Amino acid sequence: MFETILNEEERGQVGIGTLIVFIAMVLVAAIAAGVLINTAGFLQTQAEATGEESTSQVSDRLQVVSQSGNVTDSGGDRIVDNISLTVAQSPGSDNIDLSETSVELIGTGGQETTTLDEGMIDIFTNDQLDVVLTDSSERANIEIDLDTDVDYGDLEGGDRLSVTFTTPSGATTTTELRVPTTLTESEDSVRL
């Protein structure tokens, strides 16, 4: 099992060879550990960014508080030519810039998509002059003229219209508007 080494020169060479192999193994292990640590750091950063984007897509949405329509007389028929939606931030959402929010209308008149502009938005609980919802207590009134703002056309009694808001983070909110089957002369506006 143990050999007696008679030559002193051979004894030192075996020890140096073992030392060189040991140092090489330590260097390889250190390089591998460095690569693993760098990869883990990169994956952690990427996972955090993905998590933040996913959270924004889920929580940074609008909540429709109320919806109504402007009733006008058009050649003896009563129609809705303008819709008004009051929106707020959903609970837990970050600031929402309404000027970068798109709205899509789908109904019997077809499908139309547009980006909200400042003329369509009135934030009536915000002291600032911008169109960003920054607090869950703020409300914004969005007026959409169905003939000028979008080329959708007027709504008649019994029509349905699906309105989808998409915020800059990609979160969507859909609400269904239903025009009453009869629109009377005494109505200037109607709850949809």
UniProtKB/TrEMBL annotation:
Subcellular location(s) of the protein: Archaeal flagellum
UniProt protein name: Flagellin
Coiled coil (residue ranges): none
Function of the molecule: Flagellin is the subunit protein which polymerizes to form the filaments of archaeal flagella.
Keywords, sorted A to Z: Archaeal flagellum, Membrane, Transmembrane, Transmembrane helix
Family under the similarity heading: Belongs to the archaeal flagellin family.
Membrane-spanning segments: 16-37
Main location as per UniProt: other
InterPro entries, A to Z: Flagellin/pilin_N_arc, Flagellin_arc-type
Gene Ontology cellular-component terms listed: archaeal-type flagellum
UniProt KW Oxidoreductase keyword: no
Keyword Secreted (UniProt): no
